Amino acid sequence: MLDIVGVEKTFNPGTINEKKALNGITLHLDEGDFVTVIGGNGAGKSTMLNMIAGVYPVDCGSIVIDGVDVTRLPEYKRAKYLGRVFQDPMTGTAADMQIEENLALAARRGKIRGLKAGITAKERREFRELLTMLDLGLEDRLTAKVGLLSGGQRQALTLLMATLSKPKVLLLDEHTAALDPKTAKKVLDITEEIVGKNNLATIMITHNMADAIRVGNRLIMMHDGRIVVDVKGEEKKKLTIEQLLKMFEASSGSEFTSDKVMLSK
Length: 265
Description:
Structural class: alpha/beta
Distance between the termini: 31 Å
Number of helices: 10
CATH architecture: 3-Layer(aba) Sandwich
Strand content: 15-25%
Number of domains: 1
Strand order of the largest sheet: 6-7-8-3-9-10
């Protein structure tokens, strides 16, 4: 479903601020793979997601989504293959629009739009069913403005919108980091349910080591723009935080020093 081969990216080349963000990243995802990504600041995690999404052009290498080479496609052209949820709950929804209007926009992504009625009765029924799955009481608030929702409700809605059209790849960029622990767990549970139900190839960046180990079927750790740890299947299920840190140190040749990650263990 996703093939990244030898992707490199350097920001501000030839200047005093030169930064090698990605150093020959190669990654393959099958349909249904749920990969958690962990690493310190500057490891290249968000840059990798931005390369997949087309936010920045790659210096070299290739990116293929479901057999389509999107390496040179601009961001807006490859958006139809992707769903993305950001860290900020305020990103990804239109605050001044109603819940049902936001969902309708998401449902029409990549489709030709005509002059027929904005939201049909059939769509309202479908939206209500989808919102019921979230168990947040939003199914009875279809006409409420999204700006009135809590951060957790808004992030859950964003997640629903990002997956409504069943993207080829779902990108989650620390999408629970701005939420309180109880709400973060709720959103993460909803994430697992949606990804599992739709069998989506998913990449989730997180700073929480316990979540990185527990969630998904594969875990990668990044350091200095490289993937230094790649664990999957039964090995991942049996992994402990201490073992993960030892694997990182053995592969990278340095200790894991991210305060944010260590505090979230």
